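Student: Hello, beginner here. Can you help me understand the protein record under this note? Any guidance would be welcome.
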Amino acid sequence: MSYCVNPGCPHPQNPADSILQCQTCGARLLLRARYRVIEPLGQGGFGATFLAKDISLPGQPSCVVKQLRPSSSSPRVLEMARELFKREAKTLGQLGDHPQVPRLLDYFETEQQFYLVQEYVKGSTLKQEVKHSGRFNESDVKNFLLEILPVVQYIHSQGVIHRDIKPANIIRRVQDSHLVLIDFGAVKDQVSQTILLDPADQTANTKFSVGTFSFAPPEQMALRPIFASDIYAVGMTCLYLLTGKSPKDLDFDAVTGEIVWQPHVQVSPNFARILGKMLKPMVGHRFQSAGDVIRALSGEFEDPSLVEGLATQFNGSSRTVEEPTIFNGEATAWSAPQSKINQDLRSNHTRAGRTSFTQSGNTGMQPRVSRTLAESGRTFGTVAPSSDNLAGQKVTKAVVKWDTNSLRAAYFKGKRDFADCEFSGLQLQKALLAGGNFYQARFVKANLQTADLSGANLGHARLIQANLRGANLTEAYCSTANFEGADFRGADLTGAYLSKANLRGANLCGANLTDATVSEEQLATAKTNWLTVKPDGKRGFGF
């Protein structure tokens, strides 16, 4: 079979003898006059992945073709996509030098679509392996860590954060049983950023990937991934291997933000401490590098707590990290800022076991931990220390109050981080806020009717009595958000993550909750009717 990669083709399957032109839409089937697509492998917001044959080589070896689809045809957006695409292809080309990372074979652009061709890795993902063969034991998970962590260490040495480590992105290769790390988020994030709202195209899609929220740590959900973010994701992968459950199906401590995993596993106390340190929500309490975890597994660190505050990355040097390129709201042109992780703890002030932090000059954001997750909700942000902060007193945070016009303008220019900000009472009807970070923001009595909040981070946000009628909250992250008395009539909550959210008195009549993560107990506190679509896709009263 030949498969048409035209996104608009209604019948992409073609007979095997059709290799030049799609019989349905007329699009060319051969990519770059050499790659014949056989079947789709997956699809997401950034594009699609296909299995293909390289007919120009003897034996027509298999390969993977990744198609990235900017949803805007604006010349400005396409040019930005083109530059980022070339840069990220170069990055993946460098990473492919490792035997456990798929090699980049080719990259090209045709008809305003961008393509990456990578080595095809035959095998099963760890997700498939657990479903087929059952859960891993402690010994199996340790072997997994000792094999995957050197790969993570390698990509970090190249200045790249994976951003999407999870069981579905780790394949056990058939030919040698080695683990291979696939599906790097760098290209998805980078090229998706070119879809940012452009003045010449008012319909551009603004959603972009920040990884899989079940496996991503708080700082990554706040759009500030660092090397230690991948360590957290590896730890979450360990939990899946040990329990066979997605992290979103496990409880978490509402005060500390930690996943409550201990009752579900049987592991030795020492390994439990190692795993617990990988899964710390606060970056300063987590292992800082893959090498740290490897040394802990090898028994190089003595208890207590595997050396409190362990951070081998803080060695007085800094490294430039590949991060998603965004439009700088304070500038007048497209820019590609690269955050540097300042690894010198000497400038930090430690009081009573808590590490404060500062932001200065052009050195970028320094790793910092000032309060518990329940208080701040994130590890990075803008914090204004009080005059007595250095004396060990509490840190106060400046709350930014936005008006309707300034919020719309900032988002239009590319700003996405609005965590801890004040939007209460604003008139934001039809506002385009997709993919924004509104962690712990306040929208009390705000009018968000028919607003686009798809993919937004609303964790711990306060939307008490907010008007969300007809709003788009598909795949929004709303853990522990307060929606008491909010109006969701006709809202689209498909795939939304509502675990621990307060829905007391919320009006969900006519809302679509298909595939949403929400409990019956939560929904019992809300108003529903026969038009409400339940998480299982069915309509009806009650849950």
